[in-house]
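# nightly structure sweep
# worker-07 picked up a monomer target from the shared queue
# config: single-sequence mode, recycle default, output format = structure tokens
# input follows
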Amino acid sequence: MFDDKLKTTLGVRHQNLKTTSYDPNTQAKTADYDKSEWTPSVGIVYQPSMDWSVYGNYIESLAPGARAPLTNNGGAVTNGGQNLDPYVSEQTEVGVKYDNGLIGSSLAIFRTDEPRAYVNDSNTFTAAGENRHQGVELTVFGSPSENMRFNAGVTYLNAEQKDTGDVTFDGNRVIGLPTLQSNVNLEYDLAAVEGLTVTGDIIHTGARYADAANSLKVDGYTTLDLGARYKTMLAGQDVTLKGVVTNITGEDYWQSVGGYAGAGYLNAGEPTALKVSATFDF
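# output follows
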């Protein structure tokens, strides 16, 4: 009935994870974990035509526990520098893809569950509840002409704290994760100058929360990068010269917002900058 249009994958793997933690000041061993797990994976792909495919997969994976920060609000974390126990993450994804060789697109719905780590009232780094990430991702890519290429994507993410044991946090968004992210990349080869390509990148990141109680909100931002690369020969070698002006509009923004409940951080984004490089192919 399905001929060769339906493909399935069933797998299982054995993972062993050893984690050793040391005191950053005395170098004494503070924790030692050795965990083994059998983790399954299931995948299915249905291809009704050469251009279209529909897929779904479920994957489990053994991952190391989060590492405790050394300090929290100016005080030392009791188990600072130690890793929490390894855990098994779960990921589910279903989607559809289209690719005719010139233009392609994909639409995916996904969900990932992982333990929620935080610093408690005793200034100890521990885990309670889970962070659930579920959302939709759309990408479009292609080469509509011989000298043009593009790639664009948008992701809607609902990242929620669940079963935390504290009504202050249950249902709140996970620290540092925006609801909306999008990007557009464009490349164009200039016919007037052989080997010269101009590039442009636009990245948008939506607003994010900097604390587990969702009382501190960081604004979203959009950056624009413009650049060029030139492929030529130098002393018989292939050379690619690149130049790009990043954040050309001078956007002031926080590039990363992260951490755990009770121990968050902010990293400032780069100002406008000119970056140049040369790559030699031997």
